[in-house]
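#lab-general

N.A. 3:47 PM
ok so I finally got the sequence cleaned up, no stray characters, all 458 residues accounted for. can someone with queue access submit it? mine expired

B.Y. 3:52 PM
send it over

N.A. 3:53 PM
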Amino acid sequence: MVAVVVAAISGCGNNYRPVISAINPVGPAAQPQKFAVAISSTGTAANATPGLLTFVDFGGDTVLITANVGVNPYYLILNGSTTTAASTGFTLNSDHTLTTFSIFTGLLTSQILQTTLLPNANPVAIFPEGINTYVTDPGLNVVSQFTGSPLVLQQQFGIDPTFKPIYTVGVPNAPRVYAISQSNPVGSPGRVNTIETTSNTLDPTAIPVGVNPVYGVMTADGKRAFILNQGDGTVSVINAQTNTLDTVPAGSTNPIKVGTSPLWADFAPLRNEMVVVNSGDGVTPGSLSVISIPLCSATTQVGNPNCDLNNPVDALGFGNVIANIPVGVNPIMVGVLQDTTNSRAYVVNKGDISLPCAAPGVAVTASTTTCTVSVINLDSNTVIATIPLPLSINVDAATPFANGHPNYIAVTSGTPTGKVYVTSGDTNFMTIIRTDTDAVDTTAPLQGAGVSVRVTQP
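B.Y. 4:20 PM
back already:
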């Protein structure tokens, strides 16, 4: 799949800085600046118009950086570092390139480097893991490993041709990550292949999962991975310590039955819960499943006499679905607010994509659909607010005013307020919601159709 890399950026560059001797005592080091990082498309692959990368300051909601990436970017991920000097982003672009960039306020377009991909490559996802960057590519039926700065292709892990890789799930510094593959053609159970990150080898024994897996998440401690199976409405649980399907407690099942067409998930770690978005049929309301996922610990060993704190087993209640909460039409993503209690989850509802979105405050008719963000209180597991997305300028001049079908959400905490960022593929503004009021605060211009947004800190 992938190929030659032209690649990464580093730190804040090599600009000369004069040496200054401090006379007065020096205060504590400044905290890393927090950004929302968004990509947008200004055209199509046919007209070869570069896409745009935009940094929006968390504190002031101002655009700090706008730079060019590849044509029609379609995938964005950050490496998860909270140290500004080590924070790196990656995009996949429709001009057959992979872009790498550092996240700092002095970033220039000339510092964004590109990798030209191999012929027939069709990558769909990137996963940065420590010194390794794994790129999932159904076009070549491989997961490719890159290392170095600039990135250099090291090897390609071939996938059984009766399957096609769709996503790689893991967390930074995990000893193993999982390449998720769908059956080819789709309709039968999928599988995951284990990549051992220390040796960079592919385990030949695949782990079976549900029908049409599309996405996965791994707990921050790297002990459990959850695979979302869109085709049969389940979540498969992998015990990453034993590298097998998890043996769940009595009363639970693996896979876990959720709603219709699960496709995204996030964690509420302070609650030992995972939330899963079920998109439904795309024209009627979907749902959010809340799943209990506690492991035994020094304080919760009741019912787990064999608990080994270095290799914990599931605690009682693990895998139980404790709520199925109706949300909007065609929900596609969820983000949990990582505040002191994981108090809320935010679900972005794309609406019926065959219909235009209704304007805020205007009743939905047979010819319109709702395009909203649902706010879920995780104490009561109820929807406490439904936020309509505001009117904004459309990229199509023939219909200059509309609010778009949202396609991506990113949530970050903060004091006195956190922020929720929402992009839309048919508008060139990003919506910013405050979490203290759960209301739209402002919009930020992206100068192109919104594709995706991530935050540098949770």
